[in-house]
Amino acid sequence: MAKTNPGRFFEDYAVGDVLHHAVPRTVSGGERALYHALYPARHALYSSDEFARGCGLPASPLEDLAAFHMVFGKTVPDVSLNAVANLGYAEGRWHLPVYAGDTLRAESEVIGVKQNSNGKSGVVYVRTRGLNQRDECVLDYVRWVMVRKGNLELPAPETFIPELNEAIAAKDLVVPDGLDFSRYDFSLAGEPHRWDDYEVGEQIDHVDGVTIEEAEHMLATRLWQNTAKVHFDTTARPDGSRLIYGGHVISMARALSFNGLANAQMIVGLNGGAHANPCTFGMTIRAWSEVLDKAETSAPGVGAIRLRLVATSGDAPFQLKGDDGKYRSEVLLDLDYWALMPR
């Protein structure tokens, strides 16, 4: 009997399957240090326990995207080990901050499947929940991924494409208990711009760029225990290159957005996202943002801002799609998210 796990192929999924992912992981301060080593991450709430306590939290939480990557990595052996590419996200919410000492595990439900017209692969939709040691949901999200077929002769699962909301309603965003920006220290945060200073439709060029190095990408995927073959094995892609993990691009773009959005502190909603084009090492990532919406919250001094974050390998900001309606070739990421910001 074979002892190794070849991973699931497209024909192995059916709507309603529940996948309990292996290897829970206890968070330590090391994750924060490594995250800040990988990305130019400088948001004050995630850098200083004292700053976080001044905002009503018991300590500085783990970066929201670091928690996302950790949960995401748990799912890879069951969802995307044989993936061609991760395609998009929707309906993501952060319910609780994650602190050092918390233990995270993950489970996913298959909510949709559709075979591609070439018969060699298909798209699998899953809803994933990250749970802590108290079985509390710290975050959940939907993602869809293109997965190879293992046996081209086997019939495809019956097609079902889930209906997904375009965005998380502002009233459904979860503001962490105790969060209070009424005494927010703008000088320590790095920029003076409040929630009130941003206008819907405003676009921000984040100016800076970072060249992707293969060694950093390999460290990131190992840190999050992401074992997808296309990120490690150069024989898994026809061109012999490693595909840069999409989450690596997300975190790099989010870190670059500090210049202009230093006070967009906590990510609380993931409305949608697309990895528009593949990223490979040697590309220089730049980022720009657009304000899509704003909403008040009941927390003192806290507003919610909806942002489009675009990562690009080109030099010109604010270029997203061509005349044909398709993403321009230099666009790597189009992410739509909610963040909390002082008013």
Structure explained in plain terms:
By secondary structure, the protein is an alpha+beta fold. 19% of the residues lie in helices and 31% in strands. The protein is built from eight helices and eleven strands. Strands 1, 2, 3, 4, 5, 6, 7, 8, 9, 10 and 11 form an eleven-stranded antiparallel sheet that branches. Helix 1 packs antiparallel against helix 5. The chain starts with 17 loop residues before the first strand and ends with a strand. The model has no long low-confidence stretch (mean pLDDT 95).
Strand content: 25-35%
The profile of the biggest β sheet is:
11 strands, antiparallel
How many angstroms does the end-to-end distance come to?
61 Å
Helix content: 10-25%
Instruction: Name the poorly predicted regions.
Output: none
Tally of individual helices:
8
Number of strands: 11
> What is the string of helix and strand elements?
EEHHHEEEEHEHHHHEEEE
